Amino acid sequence: MSHPAILETKEAFGESIVIADPARIVDLCRHLKDVEKYLRLSGVTALDLHPAEPRFEVIYHLHSLERNQRLRVKCRLGGTTPEIDSITGVWRSANWYEREVYDMFGITFRNHPNLVRILMPIDWEGYPLRKDYPVHGYKYSYPSE
What we know:
The protein is α/β, with parallel strands linked by helices. The chain contains 2 helices and 7 strands, in the order ββαββββαβ. A hairpin with a 2-residue loop joins strand 1 (6-12) and strand 2 (15-20).
């Protein structure tokens, strides 16, 4: 597989892994869906590698039903306010996956149609799966009933 957005490829646990340029993720995903026939996005998740830099990895799990092959696409993001383009225009199923990653890690998906919290209350402070999140969480006062 060849595409200008691919920085590195490797194999692990019977799956191919692609390290991709985050600035070109939408273009790469369109190629993977239309040309390579990875028609199914089975998940989007992230890793916080704190204190390493780049600190975050966004990981896309793809599946080619035609060839019964799986592919992991990883994009490395740095900084305290990481951002990457949304792939909801390629796979609509990315919508809730990207919202979960935003909610838990604070990674912003530019051009997402509705990037709001999905698991935590709307007014929750912080991102619970970041490694610098306090073990007991931030103080939260529930609204009175």
